[in-house]
Structure formats: structure tokens, C-alpha cells
Design goal:
- By secondary structure, this protein is α/β, with parallel strands linked by helices.
- 33% of the residues lie in helices and 16% in strands.
- The protein has an 8-stranded mixed beta sheet, sandwiched between helices. The protein has a 4-stranded parallel beta sheet with strand order 11-14-12-13.
- Helix 10 runs parallel beside helix 11.
- It is globular and about 60 Å long.
- The protein starts with a strand and ends with a helix.
- It binds threonylcarbamoyladenylate (TXA) and magnesium ion.
- The site of threonylcarbamoyladenylate (TXA) has 27 residues, from strand 5, strand 6, strand 10 and helix 8.
């Protein structure tokens, strides 16, 4: 049986497994936000073709201080909605020294956060700490609003689910970009724009989150490791540095994404290793071929963006 209780859910999460939990909007596929291995499993099970950043779920507004930058004014505004159980996600600047996995933010310097207003989700988070959770469905399918939807969506390979009944909102949270002083709407959702506008006393400008993230200008800043990236090669010229993959990685590789060729492990090391290597100021980072299936799709998607960013 794939239905589990809160106790078992917390135990699995603390072992870096992923499980589905109810929230007031939709069921989420959750893993600990600080654990890259857990977050990599989310992308793998969802079959996401690229590393879209995920929302971090906390149980109290005070939990966000360890990883997000927020002043007392913004905190007051966000608390207004969260304390009334509104389905609002806020994007804030990441704080230096945070311990959130770079797979959660997909290498961005901002982070999306919300409180899920469901007693089961809150109880689980109180036991495990912040959870990263996209909707608990295979990529491009309908979002699940009851435990059965989750099981149906993942037919052959369903995750464990805590059954918290039907979601009351049934639609994903509303996302605002609050990195500057004026909030901008990134995704309409469970909290209406009218409610936001009424509270803030002005019109809220709209921007599509996907455009914001994938616009070339943003890519250049956020996804480039800061030096040229050369794909599908294991030969390096003077000044270049090799990022290996798999058991056939040559001895001159500076790091290996996964010695055994495991794509989940490779995904979990990707952002960190690119960051380590770029700090050595190479003339280019050369990366061995990564198989183009499973999480390899998402890894290659990100690497191709990194490789083209510098050419823009
Ligand atoms: O209601 C919800 O929000 C559900 C439940 C499970 O909490 N979660 C959800 O997650 O809808 P997901 O992964 O399907 O959607 C997350 C959205 C993505 O569209 C992503 O682009 C955006 O949040 N996002 C995440 N981090 C961001 C960031 N740093 N900047 C801009 N957008 C971000
Ligand atoms: Mg979704």
C-alpha cells in the first residue's frame, strides 16, 4: 500500500527519500530542500526535462530568515496573507551562507517560498525542516488534488503518499516576485490578484515566471558559470579544465559528476561542481558527454544553456 502516515513520511524524508504530501492547493512531491540527493530524486520521478526552480515550503514565517533576505516591511506584508492561510508564494533574494540545495533554485540567486496551509504538511515540515515540492504529477500532466490522482499519475512507479483528503483550493499558489520593493505577479493561482491589489492599494504588474527565468538576458547572468563551457568532449587545451562523467573519465578530469555513471548523482553534483570549477578561473570548462535520458535530459538542457550563454 502506498498510503503512509505522518510518522512514516517524516522518517522517509529524513532518510532523503521523497514522498507526496497534501497542501491546500495541490499535492506536492516533497523532499528536504537542503539535501541535493533528495531534490534530484524529485526531478527524476517527475521526469522534468529541465531544472525548473522549485518552491520551498516552510511551517512558519520565521523559518525563512536562514536562507532568504527579507526586511520587516516585506515580512509584515507577507505575513498578512500567510496568517490568513492564503495560497501565496513569494520569490525573495537568497541569503549568503544558506544551506538550500542549488538544485532547488536551479542556480538562481532568488528563492520561492510559501507556507502550505494544510495541517498534514505543517506537521511533516515541523519534523523535517523546509521541503522543496513541485506538484506531485509527471511533468506536463494535470496537478493532483487528491491522493488517488498522485498514484494514477505515476502509474508504474508511484511515490508514497500521505492522504490528507481533497485539496480545498485545487489550483497552484499565486507567485509574486518580491525581490524588489514592488511585488510583481509571476503566476496567477489560488490567491486572487484582486486580493493582492486591494491590500497593496495598487495595480500589480504581471510577468510570466517562465519568461522571467528563461529570457536570454537572465540566462546569461544566472546559468553561466562565468566562463566558456564546451560540451561532449574529454580533451582539454592549456588553461581548460575537465568535468568528467562515468567510469571512463580520464585521470586528468578535475572532478567527476558520477564515477559510476549514475544520473541522479550527476544531477545532484552539477551546480556545485560547475561553481567549484569556475572558481579556478579556467579558460573553459570542458564537460564529457552525458547520456540523454532520465535526468540526463535535464542535465544536458542546463549545460546547453550554460554553453550558449557565453556566446550571446
Ligand atoms: O501550490 C503550489 O505552489 C504547489 C504546491 C505543491 O505547493 N507547488 C507548485 O510547484 O506549483 P511547481 O514546481 O509546480 O511550480 C513552481 C513555480 C515554477 O513555475 C517556477 O518557475 C517558479 O515556481 N519559481 C520557483 N522558484 C522561482 C524563482 N526563484 N524565481 C521565479 N520563479 C520561481
Ligand atoms: Mg506543476
Amino acid at each position: 500500500m502506498m498510503i503512509i502516515d505522518i510518522e512514516k513520511a517524516s522518517t522517509l524524508l529524513l532518510q532523503n527519500e521523497i514522498i507526496a504530501i497534501p497542501t491546500e492547493t495541490v499535492y506536492g512531491l516533497a523532499g528536504r530542500a537542503t539535501e541535493t540527493t533528495a531534490v534530484a530524486k524529485i526531478y527524476e520521478l517527475k521526469k522534468r526535462p529541465h531544472f525548473n526552480p522549485l518552491i520551498v515550503h516552510v511551517s512558519s514565517i520565521d523559518d525563512i530568515h536562514s536562507f532568504a533576505i527579507i526586511d520587516s516591511n516585506k515580512k509584515k506584508h507577507i505575513n498578512y496573507f500567510w496568517s490568513q492561510n492564503k495560497s501565496l508564494t513569494v520569490v525573495l533574494p537568497l541569503k549568503e551562507g544558506h544551506s538550500i540545495s542549488p538544485l532547488v533554485t536551479a542556480g538562481l540567486n532568488t528563492i520561492a517560498i510559501r507556507i502550505p496551509h494544510h495541517p498534514v504538511a505543517i506537521e511533516v515540515i515541523n519534523r523535517t525542516g523546509p521541503l522543496a515540492a513541485p506538484s506531485a504529477n509527471i511533468a506536463n500532466r494535470l496537478s493532483p488534488t487528491c491522493a488517488n490522482h498522485v498514484l494514477e499519475s505515476f502509474k508504474d512507479n508511484p511515490p508514497y503518499v500521505v492522504d490528507g483528503g481533497a485539496c480545498t483550493v485545487g489550483l497552484e499558489s499565486t507567485i509574486i516576485d518580491y525581490t524588489n520593493d514592488i511585488p510583481i505577479l509571476l503566476r496567477p493561482g489560488g490567491l486572487s490578484i484582486e486580493e493582492l491589489e486591494e491590500y497593496f492599494g495598487k495595480k500589480i504588474e504581471k510577468r510570466k515566471s517562465d519568461q522571467a527565468i528563461s529570457a536570454p538576458g537572465q540566462l546569461k547572468v544566472h546559468y553561466s558559470p562565468g566562463c566558456p563551457v564546451i560540451l561532449n568532449s574529454s580533451t582539454i587545451k592549456h588553461g581548460e579544465i575537465l568535468l568528467g562523467f562515468g567510469p571512463d573519465s580520464p585521470s586528468h578530469a578535475a572532478l567527476n559528476l558520477s564515477e559510476s555513471g549514475n544520473l541522479v548523482e550527476a544531477a545532484s553534483n552539477l551546480f556545485e561542481y560547475l561553481s567549484i570549477l569556475s572558481k579556478k578561473n579556467p579558460s573553459a570548462i570542458v564537460i564529457m558527454p552525458i547520456p540523454n535520458f532520465g535526468l540526463g535530459l535535464a542535465i544536458n538542457d542546463r549545460l546547453e544553456r550554460a554553453a550558449s550563454a557565453i556566446k550571446l
